[in-house]
Design brief:
The protein is of the alpha+beta class. The chain contains 9 helices and 15 strands. One of its GO terms (cellular component) is cytosol.
């Protein structure tokens, strides 16, 4: 493999359809038997709602798993009452609002909500309690081993053969991006050039004084791959750690970082330049700046330059820090910093 290809080797695979099949296979049909005060059972009938994205990436031999899903399961129960064949029946749902790599990385337990959609009675309440205390907890092991199953099934499809070459010592070769905003800001200072320059004060309707902020960094990735990371809503969460809404058409609106950054697309030069109308939540109402994202392909890296014009003067430092922490450090959290050993 050439040094260029080895340096930039990046493959991804969408595993969302497989994920729904995995949970359907392992969760639907799960049953818990009741013996007191009456005999009966509660069971999972179906997955009534599945939403989210699941993706594997191979960056120089290191697997990156990104997933964030929401599931709703339908359950039903039946108690024998000795009076009729039907007995007493109940129905309801179990909702898992966040099935994500973050929960797994933090070692937290998956949260769920159990509800009953049928009429409530003393008998049906006992079934609801059985679902909450027994049936739902019995499903959790399948959530915890999901990532291992995901990797075992799909790692080979992104060119990962199980070798630990290039992975951190003691690592499994499986990684998810960490929140690098605080830790990497200081370590990346030398590698990331930042500068600010006062721009002429613009005569806004509110007489708002503004300035310009520039942030740039060399990243170990081809310009076309970096462009896709910055503009593909399916891949943006890999570095923002939050869902993204973005359509690459002039005039279309976008939303990043859980709605904390909003705006619209002004112009597009594919793989080279993106100009956006951009605002942060703490800026004055209805005030937007202009963010110009420029990608310049070099011999062994791509220079990313972020130029934000129209920044309220009192927001200069905070805006510079936000671009550096949430854009640059977020991307470097994927192992794109020059000189990274992966």
């Amino acid at each position: 493999m050439s040094s260029w290809n080895k340096h930039y080797h990046w493959k991804t695979k969408n595993a969302t359809p497989w994920t729904k099949e995995y949970f359907t296979k392992n969760l639907v049909g799960a049953t818990h038997e009741l013996t007191k005060p009456q005999k009966g059972n509660v069971k999972i009938d179906s997955i009534s709602h599945f939403e989210g994205d699941v993706e594997l990436g191979n960056r120089k031999g290191r697997l990156i798993t990104i997933y964030d899903c929401q599931l709703t399961l339908d359950w039903s129960g039946r108690l024998e009452d000795g009076k009729s064949e039907e007995g007493t029946e109940a129905k309801g749902t179990i909702s898992f609002p966040e099935v994500s790599h973050e929960v797994q990385d933090e070692g937290e337990e998956y949260k769920y909500r159990v509800e009953m959609t049928s009429a409530t009675s003393v008998a049906t309440q006992s079934m609801l309690e059985a679902v909450r205390s027994h049936l739902a907890p019995s499903l959790l092991p399948y959530f915890h081993k999901f990532r291992d199953e995901l990797v075992a099934t799909h790692a080979k499809d992104v060119g990962h053969e199980g070798s630990n070459e290039g992975t951190p010592t003691g690592g499994s070769g499986v990684s998810t991006p960490k929140d690098t905003s605080a830790a990497q800001t200081s370590s990346n200072t030398a590698a990331t050039s930042t500068s600010t320059s006062s721009a002429p004060k613009k005569e806004e309707s509110s007489k708002l004084s503004t300035t310009k902020v520039d942030v740039e960094s060399d990243l170990s990735i081809r310009s076309d791959d970096l462009w896709d990371l910055l503009t593909n809503p399916g891949r943006i969460p890999m570095w923002t750690r939050a869902p993204a809404q973005l359509t690459l058409n002039p005039g279309s609106t976008f939303s990043l970082f859980n709605g904390n950054v909003t705006g619209s697309i002004i112009s597009i030069e594919p793989t080279n330049k993106l100009v956006q109308k951009w605002r942060a939540p703490q800026w004055p109402p209805n005030h937007f700046g202009t963010l110009t994202t420029t990608l310049a392909q070099g011999e062994s890296s791509t220079k990313l330059t972020l130029t934000l014009e129209g920044v309220p003067l009192e927001e200069e430092d905070r805006s510079r820090d936000a671009l550096d922490r949430f854009y640059i450090a977020g991307l470097k959290g994927l192992g794109l910093g020059t000189g990274s050993v992966m």
